[in-house]
Amino acid sequence: MKILNLYAGIGGNRKLWGDEHDITAVEWDEETANVYQDYFPNDEVIVDDAHQYLLENYKEFDFVWSSPPCPTHSRARFWSSKGGVHDPVYPDMKLWQEIVFLDKYFDGKYIVENVTPYYRPFVEPSEKIGRHLFWSNFLIGRYNHDVAYKKDDMAALEKEYGFQVSGSKRRKMLRNCVHPQIGKHILDRAQDIVRKSDTEQTALELT
User: Fold this and answer.
1) Tens place of pLDDT per residue across the chain (207 aa)
2) Structurally, how many domains does the chain consist of?
3) What is the CATH number of the domain that holds 105?
4) Contacts from 35-42 at CB under 8 Å and sequence distance 24+?
5) Structural domain range at position 48
6) Is-contact 4 15, C-beta < 8 A?
């Protein structure tokens, strides 16, 4: 499949996808994009605005994974704002724009991932796995994900995710990762559905 991996980070969701697909990753932060490229040299990595890139290029892909920035939606950020640690901010509506856009315009399979927000979601999610909500146009299926590590233990996260990261952005890079096993589970489900659809179409053409 031709895959578009938006807001790619260092590639947590992509870690176990292998190299059989044609993958384009879009990441705004150049330092983060360089880490991604080091781990996945066969992918095309583009340093650009993922939101705009989706609008201009969605027709070129079979599968889209989008993980828009989550801080303005997160419960932790909300309560820290209520407590005076951060200034209040508007929720970034790009999340909801992309869900609606992909659902109405995209002919392939898509997944949009984000945290559980501090408000009632404007669009009901398809599935919840751990602290993540997912919106999709295919059945993800339940996935039991047992967390055996502390999310603030960077060494534990590196071991769990299979990345070695250094620099001032290390914590952000690791915290923003979707667990590789979740990423694999979702892509496997998408592929199964695509294969089934292709088989059914072939059978229909032969009758």
Assistant:
1) 999 999 999 999 999 999 999 999 999 999 999 999 999 999 999 999 999 999 999 999 999 999 999 999 999 889 998 888 889 999 999 999 999 999 999 999 999 999 999 999 999 999 998 888 999 999 998 787 766 666 778 999 999 999 999 999 999 999 999 999 999 999 999 998 877 766 655 554 555
2) 1
3) 3.40.50.150
4) 35/10, 35/163, 35/165, 35/173, 36/8, 36/9, 36/10, 36/11, 39/10, 39/11, 39/15, 39/163, 40/11, 40/14
5) 2-206
6) no
Q: Which two tokens stand for residue 189?
A: 């489900």
Model-level pTM? 0.91
Tokens encoding 16: 């176990």
